[in-house]
Write a structure and sequence with these properties.
The protein is an alpha+beta fold. The protein is built from two helices and five strands; from the N terminus they run βββαββα.
């Protein structure tokens, strides 16, 4: 099993108050990382990942240090989860973990 930090989008709500005293709720998203174990036998491909400079890039840069590198891991198999995972770590780091697993 490979241990990685998966990047996931977390939704949160904020309740604000208008000048007339009524309250309204605003939903927003942020990015977080969580530990994850992956069966290395199901890894199909690994690619370097860069978040685009738009709104997503701004959210990611506010949640992670500036020099953080990311990788996309493609998994094989049918499951209720998506087969593409964005992980914290450089392409080289993920490749090194896979090579150590195959030994």
């Amino acid at each position: 099993m490979l241990r990685i930090c998966e990047v996931h989008e977390k939704q949160f709500k904020t309740t604000n108050e208008k000048p007339d005293g009524t309250q309204y709720t605003v939903y927003d998203t942020t990015y977080e990382s969580r530990d994850c174990l992956i069966n290395a036998d199901y890894v199909v491909a690994v690619y370097p990942h860069e978040f685009r400079a738009g709104l997503t890039g701004a959210k990611v840069s506010s949640c992670f240090p500036n020099e953080t590198r990311f990788s996309t891991i493609i998994l094989d198999g049918n499951s209720f989860r998506k087969s593409e995972i964005i992980a914290v770590g450089s392409f080289e780091k993920i490749c090194q973990q896979l090579e150590e697993f195959k030994k």
